[in-house]
Amino acid sequence: MNPRRIGLNNEHRKLVVQSDQEVEAKNLKMEKEKVLQGKTLQIYWYLLTHNGAGVREIQKSLKISSPGTVSYQVDKLLNAGIISKSHIDGKYYVKEDIKKGVLGFYFHIGTFMIPRFSLYLVINILGFVGYIFFAGTHGDTFITNPGGILLLLFLIFSTSVNIYESIKLWERKPAKLV
Fold it and tell me: In terms of domains, do 124 and 138 share one?
């Protein structure tokens, strides 16, 4: 390692020695995160949820006023190395999956972006199904048992929180597609 950059790490108040490559990698990551805001984030979200798209398709789907605006935003994503353009069909494709800001609360399956809280909600629903199964097979002894009641209260609370958080995340998704 060729130490070149010396700076003060504010978090720990220590002198930090970094190579040029480490500094460049850190700056590139920060640049990628800065790019993903506003319309650029909406376009990135659109490309994540569709298997490639052209400028006109993005413009019509997101109801952006001009293709020039879309081209400008796409160029920002291209320059940051987040997307790439296919020379075969001229469409833009996601090159790198970024987990920044609101994107960090979603996981990507194919062309679907699913709030992470939805996964926790499914686990809670399976807990409810298990509770109903045990209540049906063991009758009153399970339902009147303090442990069973505590489990039911926990499932109600955690399911309610996960429903609320999933809805809030879905409302905050970057692309408001109509």
Answer: yes
Same domain for 139 and 87: no
pTM above 0.70, yes or no: no
Q: Would 178 be classed as within a structural domain?
A: no
Provide the CB-side half-sphere exposure for 54 (13 A, CA): 6
pLDDT digits (tens, 9 = 90+) for 109-156: 877 888 888 888 889 889 888 888 888 887 777 777 788 888 888 989
Classify residue 55: in a domain, yes or no.
yes
Find the domain containing 30 and state its range.
1-35
